[in-house]
Design goal:
By secondary structure, the protein is α+β, with helices and mostly antiparallel strands. About 30% of the residues lie in helices and about 35% in strands.
Length: about 375
């Protein structure tokens, strides 16, 4: 194999939406940036996933000129309830003078909008990471692609792809749940309302996407396998039963399933390295916090780097300051989602009663409801 080498200030491993957001946030600054991805350019074009973006994420993307207004379906209200007990609350965008609480957008549409603003000269596709060593004045990255090895020396390496592995620094909590995802057609239409329905099996979320709902159906692994094996009609019947009959569904698209676990990297910075997005923390999809947290990671890392007066992008003090600054938002988001899953994914009578009282309290006391809503919309930035 032939070899080549290059030197940049910041190497971002992973050209997904979070990595590209960081690259755009750094554009025009004092640092040279290289995005590295092991996939071909445009690999996301066939990605079927949907993303829940908070209004706060829309604001961040608008600031970067990367908001795709035509691709996002607004969420103007969220109805929260539990299947086996009383209590419900409704969160409405009008209470916050916002056009929407959030938006549902296909992964591929967001990725395309971001990619259109990335200079191809700063992107290295179809190159897989072989090794990474740190120390001294630069990190040394070895890549394989195009039948050759390529070396990159960088002051800072940003990990923006994958999920935390099984290293000693990673905390893992297996929820023993799988998320079954699909798109279904509701009757009547969704009227831009999202639903979060807590059941003994796990949360059931319906998110408006175009004229359909993007469904996140959380169940134990054995039930997930059963749901995947069903024909369309019995699948829709199972969805109606789990949802409680408030809506009807007349068609369903393809289904997929993936396991759910909380995976958290305790230290998000190390010598000349930093982890953001899913590479730093992988959360349960309840309340749609994970991707929005990752976007805030990217934007606040850019702020920390651009706030320097120049010099070494991988300076230990800068990375430590960034990690401290992200602690409240990360820990708050993890505690919020983890607490909801553990409190609501059971059918114990005392907890069922406590949940009902909590939902009623949210409905009856606007300041409490506003506290929760602002946390979902802006994360820890809501109080800064």
């Amino acid at each position: 194999m032939t070899e080549s080498s290059s030197r940049v200030d910041i190497a971002i491993i992973g050209a997904g939406p979070v990595g590209m957001t960081l690259a755009l946030a750094l554009a025009g600054g004092p640092y040279s940036v290289l995005l590295i991805d092991n996939r071909r350019r445009g690999a996301w074009e066939t990605d079927p996933r949907a993303l829940a973006l908070s209004h706060g994420s829309r604001q961040l993307l608008e600031h970067l000129g990367a908001w795709n207004a035509g691709a996002g379906t607004p969420i103007r209200s969220i109805h929260v309830s539990q299947r086996t007990g009383f209590g419900r609350t409704v969160i409405d965008a009008d209470d916050y003078d916002l056009p929407a609480l959030g938006y549902v957008m296909r992964y591929r549409d967001l990725a395309a909008t971001l990619a259109a603003r990335i200079d191809p000269a700063h992107l290295l596709n179809e190159h897989a990471l072989i090794s990474l060593t740190t120390g001294g004045e630069a990190a040394e990255i070895r890549l394989a692609g195009d039948g050759a090895e390529h070396g990159v020396a960088a002051q800072l390496v940003v990990h923006a792809e994958g999920t935390p592995g099984d290293e000693a620094d990673v905390r893992v909590s297996d929820y023993r749940q799988h998320a079954v995802v699909a798109e279904v057609r509701p009757v009547p239409g969704h009227a831009h309302r999202a639903w979060e329905r807590f059941t003994p099996d796990g949360p059931l979320a319906l998110l408006p996407l175009g004229q359909d709902y993007s469904v996140v159906f959380t169940v134990p692994p054995d039930k997930a396998r059963q749901l995947l094996a069903l024909d369309e009609s019995p699948f829709l019947a199972a969805l109606r039963a789990q949802f409680g009959g408030r809506l009807d569904f007349v068609a369903s698209g393809a289904r997929a399933s993936f396991p759910l676990a909380l995976r958290v990297r305790r230290q998000v910075s190390a010598s000349r390295q930093v982890w953001i997005g899913n590479a730093a923390q992988s959360l349960h999809p309840v309340s749609g916090q994970g991707f929005n947290l990752g976007l805030r990671d990217a934007c606040e890392l850019a702020e920390a780097l651009l706030g320097k007066t120049g010099g070494d992008a991988g300076a230990a003090g800068t990375l430590a300051s960034y990690a401290r600054g992200r602690r409240l938002d990360r820990q708050g988001s993890m505690a919020f989602t983890d607490g909801i899953v553990r409190l609501f994914s059971n059918d114990l009578a005392p907890l069922r009663c406590a949940r009902g009282l909590g939902l009623q309290a949210l409905d009856l006391f606007p300041p409490l409801r506003h506290f929760v809503a602002r946390r979902m919309i802006w994360g820890a930035r809501a109080w800064l």
